[in-house]
Design a protein that fits this description.
With about 110 residues, this protein is mainly α. Helices cover about 85% and strands about 0% of the residues. The chain is elongated, with a radius of gyration of 15 Å. The two termini are about 15 Å apart.
Length: about 110
């Protein structure tokens, strides 16, 4: 019915938002700009909030972990120090895997 169609629209909207934010994160990791960790933290926060609203726990947890890693890196002065960036990259890869799982789930339900 209408409720199911509305939920499908919300899930599709989450996919679009997550993909857009993931692209921003990837770009900052690939070619860091000024305050890269702050930008990664903000993009992760957007994913976390949207995923929380739809009870997508893997997306919420992995985006929260990346947000926290980026926040800690930003607090250290925000330089793209290799060890600090490596920790952020690990958390990014965990989020990326969660996004791929989400995409697979959406395909499995025809969204």
């Amino acid at each position: 019915g209408d409720d199911e169609e509305f939920l499908r629209e919300l899930l599709d909207d989450l996919r679009a938002e997550t993909d857009a934010q993931l692209a921003k994160i990837e770009e900052e990791i690939r070619t860091p700009t000024e305050a890269p960790f702050h930008k990664i933290m903000r993009a992760s926060h957007v994913i976390k909030g949207a995923a929380s609203n739809l009870m997508c726990s893997q997306l919420r947890t992995t985006s929260m972990n990346l947000e926290q890693a980026a926040s800690a890196a930003h607090e250290l002065g925000g330089s793209a120090d290799a060890a600090v960036m490596e920790n952020v990259k690990v958390r990014y890869m965990e989020l990326k895997a969660a996004v791929e799982n989400y995409h697979a789930f959406l395909r499995s339900i025809g969204v």
